[in-house]
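Slide 14.
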Amino acid sequence: MERLTKYDSAEYLEDEAMIMAYLKMAIETGDAAHIADCCATAAKARIVNQLAEHTGLGRAAICEVILDLGGTKPNDATVAKIAEAMSAPLQAVV
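Slide 15: predicted structure.
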């Protein structure tokens, strides 16, 4: 049996142009709750993009950790790089 994984749109918003197009489409719906959800997703996508740039890690690795999409235990080195990029000593995270 195939295992399903979590879905988060933030994983697919790879750059600022995509984020802005996503938000524009949300605003066009006129649905305040939908717009709020999309704003939260856009914020997560921006964090993923910034962490990828700062750590040199791929977006997929970061998504697995901060969006909990991997379904497996994250690599300790990946977690350490993300914690360092967020100025959080690993001892405070673990």
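Speaker note: The radius of gyration is 15 Å.
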